[in-house]
Design goal:
Largest sheet of chain B: none
Number of helices of chain B: 3
Largest interface: A-B, 74 and 62 residues
CATH architecture of one domain in chain A: Alpha-Beta Complex
Shape of chain A: globular
Helix content of chain A: 40-55%
Distance between the termini of chain B: 30 Å
Structural class of chain A: alpha/beta
CATH topology of one domain in chain A: Amidase signature (AS) enzymes
Number of helices of chain A: 16
CATH superfamily of one domain in chain A: Amidase signature (AS) domain
Strand order of the largest sheet of chain A: 1-3-2-4-6-5-10-11-9-7-8
Largest sheet of chain A: 11 strands, mixed
CATH class of one domain in chain A: Alpha Beta
Helix content of chain B: 25-40%
Strand content of chain A: 5-15%
CATH superfamily of one domain in chain B: Glu-tRNAGln amidotransferase C subunit, N-terminal domain
Oligomer: heterodimer
Shape of chain B: flat
Distance between the termini of chain A: 25 Å
Structural class of chain B: mainly alpha
Number of strands of chain A: 11
CATH topology of one domain in chain B: Histone, subunit A
CATH class of one domain in chain B: Mainly Alpha
Radius of gyration of chain A: 21 Å
CATH architecture of one domain in chain B: Orthogonal Bundle
Chain lengths: 479, 112
Amino acid sequence: MEISTLTIEAARSAVATGKITATVLAESFYDKIQNEDSQIGAFLTLSKERAIDAASRIDKLAADGKPLPPLAGVPVAIKDVMVTRGVRTTAGSKMLENYIPPYDCTAVARLEQAGAVVLGKTNCDEFAMGSSNENSAFHPVHNPHDISRVPGGSSGGSAAAVAAGMAVVALGSDTGGSIRQPASFCGVVGLMPTYGRVSRYGLIAFASSLDHIGPLTRTVKDAAIVLTAIAGRDPMDSTSANVPVPDYVGELEKPVRGLKIGVAEEYLGEGLDRAVRKAVEAALQKLASLGCEVVPVSLPHTAYAIPAYYIVATAEASSNLARFDGVRYGYRARDASTLSDMYRRTRDEGFGAEVKRRIMLGTYALSAGYYDAYYLKAQKVRTLLTRDFEEAFRKVDVIVTPTSPTPAFKLGEKANDPLAMYLADIYTVTADLAGIPGISIPCGETREKLPIGLQILGRHFDEATILRLAHAYERAVAA
Amino acid sequence: MKVTEKDVSYVADLANLELAAEERGRMVRDLNSILDYIDRLNELDTSNIAPMAQVADCYAMDNAKNGSDRFAYASRDDVLEGLRKSLPHEDALANAPQADGTFFTVPKVIER
């Protein structure tokens, strides 16, 4: 059986009809990882024992003729910022190189309850801070479409694993674009749900007012299936919203005719690669041909999103990462003579350059004398950015933009210029700041055969509409 | 230049980071370049704009209620073993770099 193009439904039905057992399916994915991941570097840890346990449970259900759950036997990969009981979880950092969590992240537990088989943990930028996956403390990830290029970040391992066929679906996290941008670079689907839609219990915190968990998949339908499995209120995360979860899969087939699509010139300006612009324009024409109405909208504060984001995100990170002090878990510097010396050297030796840069920037922005000028200012600009979207969504149902201004860049190309790297997220950070959902779907490729991503943004808790439009586009392009 | 080497030392102290000498020079350069870019926020007049601390401030709440009651769904009873059992002692200590079986152990605490 060809496993590299399997969807959730195909994998589940192969298991349900006895074409293959979940155990053999998992083993074939491990064979593929064994043979091919040395080129890509998508995985940091394999959880074979746990996977075979889960697969055997599914096989037993199938053998007994019992009903199978929606992701029965589906091999999945988990970004290594989500804790997994008994399976090493590093956050891509030397700080947690040997950390074995005593509990499970809710999103992972829910996927497993829905029948998924967790193959292992995927590589990422350290503490999810980066846009190229080059900030992993262990090794970089190579883009399966061109191994001299980055897969994007920070969920680069998850995107590459799905693109290379080493998992059917993966979970990622998105704080400034970390699901959508790597999805775009690797030619897969990446969904960031509304803030609060999916519990973050067990997600190693980067910036708590911006962190989201969501799926990376090969089809829009698969993203809808995974979202249905992981969404909904979790008493363990007080920020998870008390909002009912619709049947995202059932909603996919509703018509898209008459939907109003906003296009903002602020997302099509300077710095946008010509091939990306062409692909996005063609996609808009395709959507118009499906009966959607394309309407110009204005999001006038877009140019201020990156500066506001890098204050808010780093300020929150400086606070969240204070817990890594070498006392309760994680790395500890050797032979420190005092407690204070131990803290300082542990954090200096345990964190990589980008993490330290962000802790420093965030601490500076929160320090006495600078709080009003930076942190408070950025929070006010965040209000303006959110109002931009509220205004626009009075006129339109969704907003369509490029996911990233460029296709995947070369490894090393931006590694020494933090600001240039930050600008790779220029079209994605706005949705994180406003808390609205966004999806990236493939919309063609460059002359060098590099994937291009189309971003669809929606209203708070209206994942159903962006999934429906993405599904209609995907089907129209395939036809 | 906004950020000087002295500022970097002060902030590194606040953040409990040691930072080697060569890291400090690079940090001065990087922070200045990023803060120069961030300064464009000052082009916006925000004197009458309320700060946004949380997305949840603006959605998904019971607007019929006031103040923190709007988040009542997020609260729970303050009981010892509520949503889940506490971690067994040995599990809680299992990842500690150093522990004596009962407590985490650390180097001597001396005033800096």
